[in-house]
Known about the structure:
Layout: E1 2-6, H1 11-22, E2 26-31, H2 38-44, E3 48-51, E4 64-67, H3 76-83, E5 88-90, H4 91-99, E6 104-109, H5 114-127, E7 133-135, E8 147-148, E9 153-158, E10 162-164, E11 167-170, E12 179-182, H6 196-209, E13 215-219, H7 223-230, E14 236-242, E15 249-253, E16 260-265, E17 268-274, H8 280-295, H9 300-308, E18 318-323, E19 326-331, H10 336-350, E20 355-359, H11 364-367, H12 372-378, E21 384-388, H13 397-400, E22 408-411, H14 414-424, E23 430-434, H15 442-451
Parallel strand pairs: 1-2, 1-4, 2-3, 4-5, 6-9, 6-12, 7-9, 12-13, 13-14, 14-15, 19-23, 20-21, 20-23, 21-22
Antiparallel strand pairs: 7-8, 10-11, 15-16, 16-17, 18-19
Helix pairs in contact: 5-8, 5-9, 6-7, 8-9, 10-12, 14-15
Amino acid sequence: xxxxxxxxxxxxxxxxxxxxxxxxxxxxxxxxxxxxxxxxxxxxxxxxxxxxxxxxxxxxxxxxxxxxxxxxxxxxxxxxxxxxxxxxxxxxxxxxxxxxxxxxxxxxxxxxxxxxxxxxxxxxxxxxxxxxxxxxxxxxxxxxxxxxxxxxxxxxxxxxxxxxxxxxxxxxxxxxxxxxxxxxxxxxxxxxxxxxxxxxxxxxxxxxxxxxxxxxxxxxxxxxxxxxxxxxxxxxxxxxxxxxxxxxxxxxxxxxxxxxxxxxxxxxxxxxxxxxxxxxxxxxxxxxxxxxxxxxxxxxxxxxxxxxxxxxxxxxxxxxxxxxxxxxxxxxxxxxxxxxxxxxxxxxxxxxxxxxxxxxxxxxxxxxxxxxxxxxxxxxxxxxxxxxxxxxxxxxxxxxxxxxxxxxxxxxxxxxxxxxxxxxxxxxxxxxxxxxxxxxxxxxxxxxxxxxxxx
Length: 455
């Protein structure tokens, strides 16, 4: 079958393209910007890519067109598909109805921690010799790519964003997992959902798809998830928690920064973990992953050994440079809660060392100002903050940072921000760049400034 993918260079759709190719299909694709690393990864697999969305790319007519959720009515390729009556579907639906059928699907859902937790689960299964397939919205360092074919087990990052312009259900309702992790639930995607209740409805729909023989691993401390489960739960339910809650699975911090953890199941010790990750949020991710792989049949001792070797995920507090005692991190930040937890975790580890943060509010929800009152408090662990206020922000950035007591700076140009940061940074500082977009390559540009400061 010839499958053509519209929006092929996105992380999710690129993963779908790779999986379709591995399944034996002839695959081609189009995107507005065909760029590395995804473009080179696809082309290395023999997938032909086209720049832009021209109707000519669909001649001869493919057997199936898979349309990404970034495309909408008015797009030339979309209009051509509809006018010509071509066979089309969405990426999540194709994945669920074709590729995932018959596999043991482990889905990781939640507002935060999906990529890290899914990467952990995939790595544990790999370490256990189970050769899992996966489709993850980031690049696990242990694998070096975001999607691959596998054997019986398949790990999927289960996004609550909508499926396509013709299917406004959440992506994850198409996956029909046997095991589902519900990490947390907060209001996000304000361009799609009007309120938290509408997102809870989508999570309820996910719960409805999990078989009675399946397992749900849910955050015991999340009241929004508890409200979802109260709507109905027909599967085995295990809750996880940080601390002393009466949850089925518990994790405790042996060291305050989270680099050493202790796990308990049913109140009984399971084992301890020393690893390279940090923060309470990563401790919770580890606990959820441990519960999920145990449900999949992996021995907990094997899982803990795998997590000890876990290398992390690119752009999740990734240390990208250390020059003259200055450590620079790149972090994929999109929500005030994630920003706060990440910075608090780093603060516990670095003590009184200075923490400099550059933030680009890029998600639709952040740019709309939905979380503007939470933004300043999320950044209080930092000693100095630069916020890049670009086009599309109609709230007062200075007011948003008022709780930082003068330590916040507003810039509109990346070059100005980098210049100010270069003048402020000194030996021993920790510098974090936070954005769920490209940030004008600011992290790498800053690293080059440190190694080659110029005249």
